[in-house]
Amino acid sequence: MSDFRTTDDDLSPTNAKLVTPLLTDMYQISMTYAHWKGGRVNDHAVFDLFFRKCPFKGEFALFCGLEEVLRFCHSFRFSESDIVYLKKLMPAADPEFFVWLSQLTCSEVKLYSHREGSIVFPREPLIRVEGPLGITQLLETTLLTLVNFPSLIATNAARMRIAAGPKAECLEFGLRRAQGPDGGISASRYAIMGGFHGTSNVAAGSLFGMDVKGTHAHAYVMSYTGLKDLRTRRLQPAGGGEKVDFVALVLSKRSQLYGGHCTSSDSEMAAFISFAQAFPDGVLALVDTYDTLKSGVPNFISVGLALHDLGYKPRGIRLDSGDLAYLSREARKLFHEADAATGKPVFRDCKIVASNDLDEDTLLGLAVEGHEIDVFGIGTNLVTCLKQPALGCVFKLVEINAQARIKLSEGVEKVVIPGRKAIYRLVGTEGHALFDIIQGVDEPAPVQGERILCRHPFAESKRAIVTPSRVECLLNLVFDGSLGHDHDIVVPLPPLQEIRSYVEAQIKSMRSDHVRSTSATQYKVAVSNNLYTFMHQLWLENAPISEIS
Amino acid sequence: MSDFRTTDDDLSPTNAKLVTPLLTDMYQISMTYAHWKGGRVNDHAVFDLFFRKCPFKGEFALFCGLEEVLRFCHSFRFSESDIVYLKKLMPAADPEFFVWLSQLTCSEVKLYSHREGSIVFPREPLIRVEGPLGITQLLETTLLTLVNFPSLIATNAARMRIAAGPKAECLEFGLRRAQGPDGGISASRYAIMGGFHGTSNVAAGSLFGMDVKGTHAHAYVMSYTGLKDLRTRRLQPAGGGEKVDFVALVLSKRSQLYGGHCTSSDSEMAAFISFAQAFPDGVLALVDTYDTLKSGVPNFISVGLALHDLGYKPRGIRLDSGDLAYLSREARKLFHEADAATGKPVFRDCKIVASNDLDEDTLLGLAVEGHEIDVFGIGTNLVTCLKQPALGCVFKLVEINAQARIKLSEGVEKVVIPGRKAIYRLVGTEGHALFDIIQGVDEPAPVQGERILCRHPFAESKRAIVTPSRVECLLNLVFDGSLGHDHDIVVPLPPLQEIRSYVEAQIKSMRSDHVRSTSATQYKVAVSNNLYTFMHQLWLENAPISEIS
């Protein structure tokens, strides 16, 4: 309802220039024309949007992208120039069709869906779309585009967070390798949703209000050829007062700690000093341009001690190559040695950031080996979802004019569960989800404390009786066009951080073996006994019987 | 120059809402601030944008994304709201910095690059960026984002085109699995650039003027439960005149051809008939909803014969599951049989389209097995570049204040070739490229007909003397901010089809073993003798000598 937001909120899609009704496959338009010609655009259709297999060889996914789906449906209308273009593509079509098309909106569409950020499982509808065939068919491709990638990224991010362990922070660093500008911005947004703590992507930060992080790159270090490149030697202490010769102070620290046998690079040192002059309270130094342990870390420690003398706090280092587990342990040792030598805890809280081509498996490997990394910066493998770059949601007709439809396929795993369906999550005494059960919308909801028969959708003999301590209805009305343009979105559009917290709670609501990184246990999605019977009957009615002679 | 385009052309980025100076990593802003504080923003820097390894285990890549790079540089300016946001991110920064930043443009930047669509190789600069350190460093992330994905997609598309064989058409069908809306639109655009013939993506078609294709989906077939769903039985002949009972005509064809033992689905038949009523000259039927050979193809043939009687032409079928090689051969056989039975070449020109999870390897496999497919529709594996979802271009400082810079890394393969460099393609008598040679910009260009020593950049003993029949200068000025905002883009921005033709010519300009699908021969990128000597000297000067005792 409109009380969830101020009336002047812009409810167009975030990427409004590209996310229009034209962002679809041509065959959707062709089919709509054929439906229009056939007099069927007002037939009542129900479509389910769902996936068949969890990504990344795991046993869960996160449902994301709902806000953009709602904004799209709210704004759905072909512009005049869209219509002009479509007429060009379909020169033989009846001109009356375009009159109809230009007036088409989602005013008769209803969407039922999970909450954005929900943990979801194969075969259960993520969104149920109801409305006239003419408009609902047209939503397919755009809805898939708006759900597939966000859900994939958020799931990938959540898996990486789990693999990184509860203490480490995860930052998204992938913009440069992302699949286009909006691929990058979506990746940042949905990585945060999935549990990441921040991003390097400034545009994403400005759009969605997330933490933006970043210090400097190798190019910064390399842009200095030596201490002579420093245009000023001075830095003002934190408390104010006379500027001091910061370069001399840093060099004296280096010679005190590392003496004559120091082989650290002076060009690198110049870069760190100049960075400290710009960000005296924000030095997180990239230490691997020349030699991490012989040059980068000693240079950082020297700068850090000088900063400390002036009342500032050094922040830490970033490792971007080599054996991250080993280098992080050795760097931590150098921090401890420096603190022991000076008797002051200057580096006690310093962070070690690691960022070289990390993925879920590397994170798991690091955990096994032991490391001292506080923050992981993850780029390419997060934003491109290297391990599985597409989620594979589909959008299937399950009912037309109140008649359930079933698509027969060779494989049982591709059968679509027919009809308008509700889903309930049955929660156990420990607060963990036990089962999701899908049933017809007209069946009474499961009741807490009462026994309910859960059936495997295809394997006749697999049954369980569950007594839930709590029952959650998972598919709820989120969009109702009939309420009018100003009231069609009937759920709040929560800020990113709120969805992120919900995701965290959702993951905690699962038994840990369902969400663990390797060999996770499958979470069960069952059907009610009624739905089982109905579906198998429909299947038998529709499947041809071969005649063999 | 402005004479390449009318003055009212909009030269902002295609995705102008997202492609702004904020589309970058935070550390670029931090570094720029540190450079500004250090009084170095006007130091003159040269950066190279290049990749180190060809994608998809191949031996070539296509350079794409240049037009968007030029639009971005042309439009580069932080907006007032950008500045407000950055101030929030850097509360401790000197306010004068933001005054400077708000006036920053690319007016002192020069870009030299390959032509968009050029065939390119590892380690050679794709774009050389020259200008003040303060602005050039800020371009890194955005330029990488704008080049990495387009080049990857175009290369993937070109490889798939090669694998599909010279006769087949390739269509891009990936929007629903693309990485976000603009991921999808970019994928369509650059797939066409790489050699695809059309796309299903309507928005991409409207933006870039490419062929848009598509007929209908399984949902269309399933939306019919039987012939009773047809609201009209009639169709007007192509030549005009009285409408005829089209349903009866189709059914009579089916019974003539397939007689009493026909097991084809009536709901499928209803769908095909209604589609033919809407598009009598555009029936390309999806034939695998129920049973491809027992139902889909016979139904299509029956409809096709009826259409033929009325003066229309059936277009063909689409296969979307099963053994595509086998099904396409069998379907073609059914076409031939129908034509033989009726004595008319109704199905002689019908196309067989195939579209189920195709990738480069499947295409190669189909070619080996033998098939009758005319058109491949390729989605997920094209747009997500499953085989390698990121190209990995980097942006490296190679010179500062006229001093060449080198980054030392553990591995020789990661060494950056230092200094401002030109590249020449040396073409042989057959018209095929022989070698690319990189040299310092001040060295005289190779001359056709004259011998030139080409050296491997790292392996001392690997040398060749090449006498080119033709010499092409590959890096040319494309952007010169000093010419003023209205004249800064100094090359034409050719339409998509022109770049596509250029790509085709570029691929043909290579010996076929360099571009073949498997075990391609490496194309050689050499350095001049001068550059070799200079670079190795710089390397020795900068590499530390370990002291061992």
Walkthrough of the structure:
Two copies of one chain form a homodimer. Chain A is an alpha/beta fold and 549 residues long. Chain A has two domains: 2-158 and 388-542, nicotinate phosphoribosyltransferase; 159-383, TIM Barrel, CATH 3.20.20.70. Chain A has helices at residues 26-37, 66-75, 80-89, 95-102, 133-164, 181-193, 202-208, 218-222, 246-258, 266-278, 292-309, 324-342, 360-369, 380-383, 496-508, 512-515, 529-542; strands at residues 44-50, 61-63, 110-113, 118-120, 127-132, 169-172, 198-199, 234-235, 244-245, 284-286, 316-319, 351-354, 375-378, 394-400, 403-404, 421-427, 433-440, 452-455, 463-466, 470-473, 476-480, 525-527. In chain A, the strands form six sheets. In chain A, strands 15-14-1-5-3-21 form a six-stranded antiparallel β-sheet, covered by helices on one side. A six-stranded parallel β-sheet of chain A has the order 7-6-13-12-11-10. A four-stranded mixed β-sheet of chain A has the order 20-16-17-22. In chain A, strand 6 (169-172), helix 6 (181-193) and strand 7 (198-199) form a beta-alpha-beta unit. In chain A, helix 3 runs antiparallel to helix 4 (95-102) and helix 11 runs parallel beside helix 12. The longest helix of chain A is centred in the N-terminal third of the chain and has 32 residues, at 133-164. The radius of gyration of chain A is 29 Å and the shape is elongated. The relative contact order of chain A is 0.14. Residues 1-8 of chain A have low confidence and may be disordered.
